[in-house]
Write a structure and sequence with these properties.
With 405 residues, the chain is an alpha+beta fold. The chain has helices at 7-23, 32-44, 63-75, 84-97, 100-111, 226-239, 242-262, 274-302, 310-333, 361-367, 378-389, and strands at 117-120, 136-139, 143-150, 161-167, 178-184, 190-194, 205-215, 219-220, 264-265, 268-269. The protein is built from eleven helices and ten strands. The structure holds flavin-adenine dinucleotide.
């Protein structure tokens, strides 16, 4: 593991920093149109799709350069681009598994945010046990007809296209009968219904498909290979922007430590309380572990290696850390931590999310639960680590209700 930046990396960081200082939006982003404009600006500057092949509009950049941009964006609290799933999951899946025609048709429009994407995997009875999915795609000669229901579809309400997993053969073992498709969301057979979350926002949707149409040319990979393709997709979700995440946590930690200095208990700053100091120190130590774990992932990527099951270690570790961190924030901030509006600025936490809200500590606390569920829950990550890294015996049918992600 190499912890040093090269002179080129240092120069590149300076350049990114200068660009952000000049171009960061002056006002908070409130609408999708504003976020699309910001997204295009980032793309035109060469800061989106940095690792994608140049011939499809990407930048062909090294993982370290991508990490530096993400890190500088986190450091300056820059708004996220839109099309997070298109950039993070769908695009990379098309790059690896798509046909030449699919790459030419879809990739550039993901990068320019002309077309927004969602991921249509989970169903009411197929989350961790994704291979049990029931949505069907039936071959009609020149196209497929899709029927079924998806759930927890992030960004479904604004998506133009969806990366779909559907069952094309119900007779073979469940992992073998699944195929991956690109589905147009703007058609009469697709009904998208937003779900209200505990945070108050509605990023999630239910998606009902009734005789929806998918063109043959929009099948990704071979018939029945959808499960293997989904594994790559989930690998991208788990690998993530680990270094930038650590920078964001460190900025949030700074806000919390400042609040602890201002808040008083028995006439003294809360930060003088030895128990509070111990708990804050513990979180800082955990954060340093996250930083080295992120650098380890980056080292693998720089060497051209995929983190593979190692991505599960990072994902389990950061998502559980975030929960502990936000629980401590609530403990320290008391009632201020629960306010969704009206808190004095020193007790607020401004977080930019890709859906346009600027959040509070209360929002961040509620959202921290999500990381331990999406892209494979913590229990599923533990199974992956146990079986694929530690070589422990595989989970048996008696241990579980079905197969796991
Ligand atoms: C913020 C967020 C965004 C999401 N976005 C999308 C999206 O865009 N598209 C999409 O398709 N899905 C999305 N999801 C859905 C997500 O992938 C599923 O919620 C996740 O896979 C868990 O499935 P489930 O909710 O059905 O829970 P279940 O699988 O029913 O799990 C319930 C509980 O049982 C535990 N469990 C299950 N199986 C095992 C086992 N074998 N061993 C031990 N414990 C087990 C789980 O850990 C969990 O605690 C999103 C979820 C979240 C939270």
């Amino acid at each position: 593991m190499d912890l040093n930046y090269t002179p080129e990396d240092i120069a590149f960081r300076k350049q990114v920093r200068a660009w952000l200082e000049q171009n960061l939006p002056r006002e908070p982003i409130a609408t999708l149109a504003q976020r699309r404009t910001w997204h295009r600006k980032l793309y035109e500057a060469g800061y989106l799709g940095m690792g994608w092949p140049k011939e499809y509009g990407g930048g062909g950049a090294r993982p370290m350069e991508q990490a530096i941009v993400a890190d500088e964006m986190a450091r300056t609290n820059a708004p996220a681009p839109t099309n997070g799933l298109g950039l993070g999951i769908v695009g990379p899946t098309i790059v690896v598994h798509g046909s030449e025609a699919q790459k030419r048709r879809y990739l550039r429009k993901i990068l320019t945010a002309e077309e927004l994407w969602c991921q249509l995997y989970s169903e009411p009875n197929a989350g961790s046990d994704l291979a049990s999915l029931k949505t069907s795609a039936v071959d009609q000669g020149d196209h497929f007809v899709v029927n079924g229901q998806k759930i927890w579809t992030s960004g479904g309400a604004i998506a133009d296209w969806g990366l779909l997993l559907a069952r094309t053969d119900p007779k073979v073992p469940k992992h073998k009968g699944i195929t991956c498709f690109l589905m147009n969301m703007r058609q009469p057979g697709v009904d998208v219904r937003p779900l209200k979350q505990i945070t108050g926002s509605s990023e999630f949707c239910e998606v009902f498909m009734t005789n929806a149409r998918v063109e043959k040319s929009d099948q990704i990979g071979k018939l029945g290979e959808g499960w293997a393709i989904a594994q790559t997709t989930l690998g991208y979700e788990r690998g993530g922007r680990s270094l930038a995440r650590v920078t964001t946590y460190a900025a949030q930690y700074g806000c919390l430590a400042n609040a602890a200095r201002r808040l008083k208990r028995h006439g003294r700053p809360l930060s003088d309380d030895p128990i509070v100091r111990q708990k804050l120190g513990r979180i800082w130590a955990d954060l340093e572990v996250e930083r080295y774990s992120a650098l380890r992932v980056l080292t693998h990527l720089e060497r051209g290696e995929h983190p593979g099951a190692g991505g599960s270690v990072t994902k389990l570790s950061y998502s559980e850390f975030e929960k502990r961190f936000m629980e401590l924030a609530e403990e320290i901030l008391g009632p201020y931590g629960q306010l969704t509006e009206g808190a004095p600025p020193e007790y607020q936490l401004q977080i930019d999310t890709a859906v346009g809200e600027r959040g509070t500590w209360a929002y961040a606390y509620l959202w921290s639960r999500a990381g331990t569920i999406y892209a494979g829950s913590s229990e599923i990550q533990k199974n992956v680590i146990g079986e694929r890294i530690l070589g422990l015996p595989k989970e048996t049918r008696a241990d579980r209700a079905g197969a796991t992600r």
